[in-house]
Design a protein that fits this description.
heterodimer; A: about 190 residues; alpha/beta; Beta Polymerase, domain 2; 5-stranded mixed sheet; 9 strands; globular; B: about 200 residues; Rossmann fold; 4-stranded parallel sheet; two-stranded antiparallel ribbon; 7 helices; 6 strands; elongated
């Protein structure tokens, strides 16, 4: 059995156990779409019955203007064989909560904290849901599509501050020419 | 370099070759600054690739100990100056400021590399756009990252700056004549001239 056959067999096994789960194949890689309500059961089944003993990555996508707005993506692996599955969980903006995977895989702890910090998705049942990248007390979630890349001004007196970066409207652009670097770069220091 | 040192000696120190045992006359200010200058203990605030260059500068090939700054102090209370090498995020900025506040005066700061000076290429929500927004910077070193020679040049520039500083003890020694001081008996008799 080669890798894509292993992945196919595992996905079929999960789909047979949970009929609500839909499966999609693209170039040998399989994506399962699992609703947040049955996510914990399905993931535990994938770990215990299908041998996916490692959670490699938790990421999320912001489909701004669509409903559901967010999706959380989990990449799980069988460490012995190297077979991967991608699990996609849609999350509506109103709900904005998925169950934490920490009880299933302990490696989910920091990965979910990162998604909570940068995308603002809550993980119900997480043992330690604090910010991990931005400072504690920062009010925004910077990887959302409606957040400007230059950031926003915010200050918490006595703790920390954040200022809008001087990007001149467009980050990482410069005008070639004979002027000095200070004039060429559109964003002078604020 | 050699001529610079000679110039400095002529400006600040005066030798009396005729005196028995060889005396050097100088001002308190020049002597204290000179002692400061060659025993600078850095607090290396290394957060990214500039810190790798700093490691190179402090190892044997570039050998920062030639300039008296080889004693890295990771305890801020023992450090004389802060070498900020690398990108400072807003999360780190609070800690940099806290460490700076823990360092005893007199203290200096060198911002090393583009990120520490201006935020560098990171024009984004998370990166402090120059450490001079949170601590007073004495010397800026350009480069991304700067070569070890540039770090040494920055240190030498800071030493020149220290040499030109008025020391707060200067006035103290002018006003208090040793022979009239209250604690004159604690000073060994040999170094007090009797009129």
């Amino acid at each position: 059995m080669n890798l894509s056959e292993l992945q196919k067999a595992a996905a079929d096994k999960i789909c047979a156990r949970f009929p609500q789960v839909s499966s999609k194949e693209f170039r040998g890689d399989i994506t399962l779409t699992i609703a947040p309500e049955i996510l914990t059961q399905a993931m535990r089944y994938a770990k215990d019955a299908c041998g996916f003993d490692m959670l490699v990555c938790v990421s999320s996508v912001d489909h701004l203007g669509e409903e559901p707005r967010f999706e959380v993506n989990y990449t799980i692996t069988q460490a012995e064989t190297g077979a991967n599955l991608l699990v996609r969980t849609p999350v509506s903006e109103a709900e904005n909560t998925v169950p934490s995977m920490v009880p299933v895989w302990r490696s989910a702890n920091w990965l979910e904290r990162e998604q909570y910090d940068l995308m603002g998705i809550e993980f119900a049942g997480h043992p330690d849901l604090r910010r991990i990248m931005m400072w504690e007390g920062y009010p925004y979630h910077p990887l959302r599509k409606d957040f400007p890349v230059a950031g926003k001004d915010f200050e918490q007196a006595g703790v920390a501050f954040t200022q809008k970066a001087p990007t001149g409207g467009a980050p990482f652009t410069t005008t070639p020419g004979i002027k000095t670097a200070g004039e060429r770069e559109p964003r002078s220091r604020g | 370099m050699a001529s610079d040192n000679l110039q400095e000696l002529e400006t600040n120190f005066m030798c009396d070759p005729d005196a028995d045992g060889g005396f050097v006359y100088t001002t308190v200010e020049a002597a204290i600054n000179w002692m400061h200058k060659y025993s600078m203990w850095p607090m290396p605030m290394g957060t990214s690739c500039c810190a790798i260059e700093y490691m190179a500068a402090s190892c044997s090939r570039y050998d920062i100990s030639r300039f008296g700054a080889e004693v890295n102090r990771y305890a801020p209370r023992q450090a004389d100056f802060m070498f900020i090498c690398g990108t400072i995020t807003y999360k780190m900025a609070a800690l940099v400021r806290r460490i700076w506040d823990q360092m005893p005066a007199p203290k200096w700061c060198i911002a090393c590399g583009a990120c520490a000076c201006t935020g560098g290429m990171f024009r984004s929500y998370s990166v402090l756009q120059g450490v001079d927004k949170i601590v007073p910077v004495d010397v800026y070193i350009s480069g991304c990252p700067p070569r070890p020679e540039a770090l040494l040049q920055g240190l030498i520039t800071l030493q020149d700056k220290i040499m030109a500083t008025d020391h707060p003890l200067k006035g103290f020694f002018k006003e208090h004549d040793l022979r009239q001081a209250q604690n004159a008996h604690t000073i060994p008799a040999g170094i007090i001239t009797q009129d």
